[in-house]
From TrEMBL:
Source organism: Araneus ventricosus
The protein's name: Endonuclease/exonuclease/phosphatase domain-containing protein
Pfam families from the UniProt entry: Exo_endo_phos_2
Lineage of source species: Eukaryota, Metazoa, Ecdysozoa, Arthropoda, Chelicerata
GO molecular function, one term: catalytic activity
Transmembrane domains' residue ranges: none
Domain Endonuclease/exonuclease/phosphatase positions: 74-167
Amino acid sequence: MANEHLTDIIIVQEPYVKKNRIEGLPSFWKSWLSKNQKPGIIALPSCNNPIFIFSGNNMVAIKIQVNSDPLSTILSYSSPYSEIEHNLNETNNFIASLHGEDFLIGADLNAHRQSWGYNDDDTRGGKVANFILSIKFQLINTPGAPPTFVQLNSKGLPDLIIVSIPDLANNSEW
């Protein structure tokens, strides 16, 4: 599937990890995990020189080249049982350290908003929505996106993708 879509990187949440590595990957694929091993980034061989830049408790980031420009790819996770503010502050501090460089954030924040496709809004979702507005960047999720998993009594909707590049937001389907 990755080759079908000309994929360079794959962002994963809560992967199966063994001996501090994402299990089941070919040995020539590069991968990075946060300190809590919840979010991870996988670079396929087609990704030209990915550079590891940060691993925090709930976040991991690499830098890749898109056309001739750098793009920081940030992946973030927040447990439904933790205070969302810690994660949002860590993410905000990291964005500030980029000094205006473009970025893409993939986030599993366990937060609900109807505008993201959930049936309800929750307090965490309100805090995340305010965060997105405060950084003045664009969420590229669409409410009609299919679930990422389905169980008997629940379904998981796509994690959030936030970008700083208007062209990417305008030309993406999520």
